[in-house]
C-alpha cells in the first residue's frame, strides 16, 4: 500500500477547513483511507539517516500527514487528487468534467518499427498554459515518482517523461537506436554523453541504478527526439536537460513509453486529470496524435467516461443495507462517479480518474465506503458453518509446544535468502536446487525463496555465538519448491527443523527429538509401516553421519551431523547436528 506525504497546512487550505489530527483521521477512515503518521520532514530524515540528517539547514519543520492510499487508487497519490476526492466526498463540490482540445499535428508522436524490439507502445498529451507554484511543481514530480513505483512497476511497464514544450519543436519521433548512436546532455549534467557513458555514470546512482537493467542488455535503446533531433529522453532511464520543466514552464509535453499499453493509458490519464486543474482553462487537455509504425494513429488521451449499470436491489443485498435508489445514487456521486437512478437501475459514469473501477463489485465497494462500514447493520450468517483451524496449522501449533517442552527455543527466520545460503554454502550447485528465484531482488540477501529451514537456523546460530552452549533451536515453517505440476509452478511445504550446537555434535539430542515427535504422532520405528532411518550422503552433512528419514518407505527429511565446510561457510566454530522433516504427510 503506497503512502503519500502531504503538508498539513497546504491540505487544510485546499480543503477550506482546519481539522484536529483526530478529526482528520476520522475523515480519512470514512473515505476508506488511513492516516498513518503525523510527522515533519526533519523527523523523517532523522528516522531514515540518523541524528546528523536532522541538523542540516533547510529542513522543513512543517507538519506532514503520511496517508496510506489503496494500491489501486492512483488518483489519490498526490495532494490535488486527494483534495478533489475529499471535497466531492464531503459534498463541497461536484466531480470535475474533463474537456479535450483538438489535436495539433505539430505535437504528434511517431513510432518507428525498431521500438517493437524493446518498448513497443507510447502515448502522449499536452497541458497548455499551466501555472506552477513551488508546491504544485513538487507535487507534479512526486506523482510521477509514485506512479513509477506503483502501477509502472519501477518503470518496467511504463516510463513517464515530462518536457517544456516551448524548448522543443514537434512533431516528435519515438525511435530505438544502437547505444553508440545515442548522444545527448542528460538531466542536470554538464556535458553530452553517449548512452553507454550514461549507463556507466548511473551505475552508482542511488535512484537510477535500479532501472539500468531494464534496457542494458538490449541491442537498441529507446529514445525520443524532436523535429530538430534534440533528445527529449532515453526512457526508462533519464530525460534530457534541454527540455526539463521548471517553475516557469507554461506548456508541458507528456509522453509515456511502455511495454503495456493499458497501463500507459492509465498513467497518462491520471497525470493530466490531476494537473489540468492548473491550466488556464481548468480540466482541459490537448490531445496528441500517436502514429504507429504502420502509419495508423490513435488520439491520446481519450478521457471518455465509461458507463456501468447496476441494480438497486443487488447493491442493497450485497452490502447488507436497505436504502432507496436515489440515496444510493447520492452515495456513488460522493465517490466521484456521477450517477442517475431510474426504474430500479443505476447508471454510473466512471470517470477517467477511476481506472480502479473495472466491475460492478467495485461500485458496490464504493457504495459501502460512502454509506459507512460502521453504519452497516450486523446480521447473523445465513449459512450454517462450522469453523475450525486449518489442519496443518493445528499440527504446527501442537508440535511447537512439544519442541519447546523438549528444551528447544523457537526461531523465526526470513522466508527469502541468498542463492549461496541454499546452494553454495551447503555444498550444492544452485542449478540442482528447486528454488523459486526473485526476478528483481532488492538485495543479495534476498534472491530466492528458501528451500530448506536449515540455512536460516545456521545463520541464527552465527548471530548468537556469544550465548552459552549448548544452543538448541527449532523452526516450523514453509519452504517453497519448484513444481511444474503446480498451477503456480511452485508449491509450499510445511517443515520442522531442529538444530543442536555444543562442544560435541550432539547427534543423540536431535535423534531423541525426532523419536519424541514420532511418538507423539503415533508413528512407531518400524520399516515400511512406520518411520525409519536409512544411511545417505549429502554434502551438507558429515560423511557417514547422515541419514534419510523415511515414513512408510518414503523420504520425508534428513538427520545428521553438519559438515565442517558448511559450519565454516556460516561462520560457526562449534559442531552441530540437525534434523529437518516434512510434516505434511502426517495429516
TrEMBL record:
It is an enzyme of class 6 (ligase). Residues 303-378 form the B5 domain. It comes from Leptosia nina. PANTHER family: PHENYLALANINE--TRNA LIGASE BETA SUBUNIT, PHENYLALANYL-TRNA SYNTHETASE BETA CHAIN AND LEUCINE-RICH REPEAT-CONTAINING PROTEIN 47. Gene3D superfamilies: 3.30.56.10, Bira Bifunctional Protein, Domain 2, Phenylalanyl-trna Synthetase, Chain B, domain 3. It is found in: Cytoplasm. GO terms for cellular component: phenylalanine-tRNA ligase complex. Its cofactor is Mg(2+). This is Phenylalanine--tRNA ligase beta subunit. Pfam families: B3_4, B5, PhetRS_B1, tRNA_synthFbeta. PROSITE patterns: B5. Its EC number is 6.1.1.20. Keywords: Aminoacyl-tRNA synthetase, ATP-binding, Cytoplasm, Ligase, Magnesium, Metal-binding, Nucleotide-binding, Protein biosynthesis. GO terms for biological process: phenylalanyl-tRNA aminoacylation. GO terms for molecular function: ATP binding; magnesium ion binding; phenylalanine-tRNA ligase activity; RNA binding.
Amino acid at each position: 500500500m503506497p503512502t503519500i506525504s502531504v503538508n498539513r497546512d497546504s491540505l487544510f487550505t485546499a480543503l477550506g477547513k482546519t481539522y484536529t489530527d483526530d478529526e482528520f483521521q476520522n475523515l480519512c477512515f470514512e473515505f476508506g483511507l488511513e492516516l498513518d503518521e503525523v510527522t515533519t520532514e526533519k523527523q523523517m530524515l532523522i528516522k531514515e539517516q540518523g541524528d546528523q540528517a536532522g541538523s542540516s539547514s533547510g529542513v522543513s519543520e512543517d507538519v506532514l500527514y503520511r496517508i496510506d492510499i489503496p494500491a489501486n487508487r492512483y488518483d489519490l497519490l498526490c495532494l490535488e487528487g486527494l483534495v478533489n476526492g475529499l471535497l466531492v466526498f464531503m459534498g463541497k463540490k461536484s466531480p470535475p468534467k474533463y474537456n479535450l482540445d483538438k489535436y495539433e499535428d505539430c505535437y504528434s508522436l511517431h513510432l518507428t518499427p525498431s521500438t517493437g524490439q524493446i518498448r513497443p507502445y507510447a502515448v502522449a498529451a499536452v497541458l497548455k498554459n499551466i501555472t506552477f507554484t513551488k508546491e504544485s511543481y513538487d507535487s507534479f514530480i512526486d506523482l510521477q515518482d509514485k506512479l513509477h513505483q506503483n502501477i509502472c512497476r519501477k518503470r518496467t511497464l511504463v516510463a513517464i517523461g515530462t518536457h517544456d514544450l516551448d524548448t522543443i519543436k514537434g512533431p516528435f519521433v519515438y525511435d530505438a537506436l544502437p547505444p553508440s548512436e545515442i548522444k545527448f546532455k542528460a538531466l542536470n549534467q554538464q556535458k553530452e554523453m553517449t548512452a553507454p557513458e550514461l549507463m556507466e555514470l548511473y551505475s552508482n546512482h542511488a535512484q537510477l541504478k535500479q532501472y539500468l537493467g531494464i534496457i542494458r542488455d538490449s541491442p537498441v535503446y529507446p529514445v525520443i527526439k524532436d523535429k530538430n533531433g534534440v533528445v527529449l529522453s532515453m526512457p526508462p532511464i533519464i530525460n534530457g536537460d534541454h527540455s526539463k520543466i521548471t517553475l516557469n514552464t507554461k506548456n508541458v509535453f507528456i509522453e509515456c513509453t511502455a511495454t503495456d499499453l493499458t497501463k500507459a493509458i492509465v498513467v497518462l490519464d491520471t497525470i493530466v486529470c490531476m494537473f489540468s486543474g492548473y491550466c488556464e482553462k481548468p480540466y482541459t487537455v490537448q490531445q496528441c496524435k500517436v502514429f504507429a509504425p504502420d502509419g495508423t494513429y490513435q488520439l491520446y488521451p481519450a478521457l471518455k467516461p465509461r458507463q456501468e449499470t447496476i441494480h438497486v436491489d443487488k447493491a442493497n443485498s450485497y452490502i447488507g443495507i436497505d436504502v432507496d435508489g436515489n440515496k444510493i445514487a447520492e452515495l456513488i456521486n460522493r465517490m466521484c462517479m456521477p450517477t442517475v437512478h431510474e426504474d430500479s437501475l443505476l447508471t454510473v459514469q466512471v470517470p477517467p480518474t477511476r481506472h480502479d473501477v473495472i466491475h460492478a463489485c467495485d461500485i458496490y465497494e464504493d457504495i459501502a465506503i460512502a454509506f459507512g462500514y460502521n453504519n452497516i447493520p450486523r446480521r447473523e450468517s445465513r449459512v450454517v458453518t462450522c469453523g475450525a483451524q486449518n489442519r496443518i496449522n493445528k499440527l504446527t501449533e501442537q508440535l511447537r509446544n512439544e519442541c519447546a517442552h523438549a528444551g528447544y527455543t523457537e526461531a523465526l527466520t526470513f522466508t527469502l535468502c541468498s542463492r549461496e545460503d541454499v546452494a553454495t554454502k551447503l555444498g550444492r550447485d544452485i542449478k540442482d536446487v528447486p528454488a523459486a528465484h526473485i526476478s528483481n531482488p532488492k538485495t543479495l540477501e534476498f534472491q530466492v525463496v528458501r528451500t530448506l529451514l536449515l540455512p536460516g537456523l545456521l545463520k541464527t546460530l552465527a548471530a548468537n555465538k556469544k550465548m552459552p552452549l549448548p544452543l538448541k533451536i527449532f523452526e516450523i515453517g514453509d519452504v517453497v519448491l519448484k513444481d511444474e505440476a503446480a498451477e503456480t509452478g511452485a508449491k509450499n511445504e510445511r517443515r520442522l527443523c531442529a538444530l543442536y550446537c555444543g562442544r560435541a555434535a550432539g547427534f543423540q539430542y536431535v535423534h531423541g527429538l525426532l523419536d519424541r515427535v514420532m511418538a507423539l504422532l503415533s508413528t512407531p520405528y518400524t520399516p515400511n509401516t512406520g518411520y525409519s532411518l536409512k544411511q545417505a550422503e549429502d554434502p551438507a552433512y558429515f560423511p557417514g553421519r547422515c541419514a534419510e528419514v523415511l515414513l512408510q518407505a518414503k523420504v520425508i527429511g534428513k538427520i545428521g551431523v553438519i559438515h565442517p565446510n558448511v559450519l565454516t561457510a556460516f561462520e560457526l566454530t562449534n559442531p552441530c547436528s540437525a534434523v529437518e522433516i516434512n510434516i505434511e504427510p502426517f495429516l
